[in-house]
Amino acid sequence: MTVQPAPGDRMKLAQAVERYIGASFRPHGRDPATGFDCLGLVLVAMADIGRPIRFPLRYALRNRDLGRFERLPAKAGFAEVEAPLEPGDVLLLETGPAQLHFAIIASEGGAIHAHAGLRRVVHTPFPLPWPIVRQWRLVAAD
Question: Which distant-in-sequence residues (6+ apart) come within 8 Å of 50 by Cβ?
Fold first, then answer.
């Protein structure tokens, strides 16, 4: 099986997550009506583009262990990349000590993420204020 880029799905993912800007933040949230956390936002946006991901509901919000999150990208059709950021790329950021955070690159740049401090989904323009721990890009199998 050869892995090919999936640029159409990447842009769809960027546009899907942008629809949730302003939605409430809620720990372990997976529902636009009640709120999202950063991982929930990624999971719902992926489902919106027809690429649902199954992931356990419960996990520690403060965590330095990448182990649980390392399995997520491959199951969802992502490949890890070290490249200029593109719309639809999913980032794992380190927003503080023992604090890992997911974001998706928006169609016009910047990142969309569920911000716990602001209690809502927001767009943060470039440059991002946090270090990128991992960068994943959607791919398609042919």
Answer: none
Percent composition of the chain: helix, strand, coil (DSSP 3-state, to 5): 25, 30, 45
* Domain range 3-55+62-141, CATH architecture: Alpha-Beta Complex (3.90)
pTM greater than 0.90: no
Rg, Å, the chain Cα set:
14
User: Residues 95-106, buried b or exposed e (16+ Cβ, 10 A)?
Assistant: beeeebbbbbbb
Per residue of the chain (142 residues), what is the pLDDT tens digit? 344 555 689 999 999 999 999 999 999 899 999 999 999 999 999 999 999 887 665 555 555 556 666 666 777 789 999 999 999 999 999 998 878 899 999 999 999 999 999 999 999 999 999 999 999 999 874 3
